[in-house]
Specification:
- This protein is mainly β.
- It contains 2 helices and 12 strands; from the N terminus they run αββββββαββββββ.
- Strands 1, 2, 3, 6, 7, 10, 11 and 12 form an 8-stranded antiparallel beta sheet that branches.
- The chain is globular and about 65 Å long.
- It starts with 16 loop residues before the first helix and ends in a 5-residue tail after the last strand.
Length: 193
């Protein structure tokens, strides 16, 4: 090849140092982001005494709010102004939006199960990022979830608080399904080895 040109499949150019630095930076930029496409929400379902993982189909948007500490008022009669301490962090609500699947197939069944959860029951919810495709697995008896190391994860306990349908002109029928998060959100990074 000619000096100074990037060789496909290699990490650096064999040409001038600046061209090699450019190729290194280009690779770093391409690896820096995780796309939203193929991100998946899973729900650990308990049916009687048996646990299973249910992939929630047709998700269009997942939004988490930053956790905020509760405010503990410590103002006394001797205070000149309001005094407070930061309490435990409230991780708020996960806003999940999905397209309605009204027809009878496997995906619609999974969506129906997800939307039929009893309001207030606490379950485990799992977000699989798009840097991998392997689904989580669960021990059907104990409910212990295993997260493949080939994908990044977010998981938390939460309670389903009902769903609303939105009918908007020139759009698909959307379902908004908020989940009240209880406790912390655990973040698991994909293995780099």
């Amino acid at each position: 090849h000619r000096a100074g040109f990037f060789v496909p499949g290699s990490s650096y150019s064999t040409g001038p140092p600046l061209r090699g630095l450019f190729c290194f930076l280009l690779e770093a930029i391409q690896m820096a982001g995780v796309k939203t496409q193929k991100t998946k929400l899973y729900w650990r379902r308990l049916n009687g005494a048996t646990y299973s993982i249910v992939p929630v189909p047709e998700g269009t948007q997942l939004t988490t709010a930053p956790g905020s500490p509760q405010k503990i008022d410590t103002t006394s009669l001797d205070s000149d102004a309001v005094e407070s301490l930061a309490g435990l962090t409230d991780n708020g609500t996960l806003q999940f939006q999905l397209n309605l699947l009204p027809w009878d197939d496997g995906d619609a069944d999974d969506q129906t199960l997800f939307l039929a959860q009893a309001n207030g029951d606490v379950s485990k919810y799992i977000i699989g990022l798009s840097d991998g495709t392997a689904p989580p697995t669960v021990d059907s008896g104990s409910g212990v979830v295993t997260y493949p190391t080939t994908r990044s994860w977010r998981h938390f306990d939460g309670s389903f608080v009902g769903a609303t349908e939105t009918y908007n002109g020139r759009d698909a029928v959307r379902i908004s399904a908020p989940i009240e998060i209880t406790g912390a959100i655990t973040k698991v990074a994909r293995s780099t080895s």
